[in-house]
Inverse folding.
């Protein structure tokens, strides 16, 4: 059940394609630096 919740929490960065586990904790992508949210 927890793994299913984690799958929904993943966010794919539209700039570099990195998977961010908790996008609500970041203002910008930690890999390429573009802003989202």
């Amino acid at each position: 059940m927890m793994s299913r919740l984690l799958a929904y929490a993943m966010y794919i960065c539209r700039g570099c394609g990195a998977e961010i586990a908790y996008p609500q904790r970041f203002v910008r992508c930690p890999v390429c630096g573009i802003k989202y949210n």
In short: Residues 1-37 form one domain. The chain has one domain: 1-37. The chain has a mean pLDDT of 78.
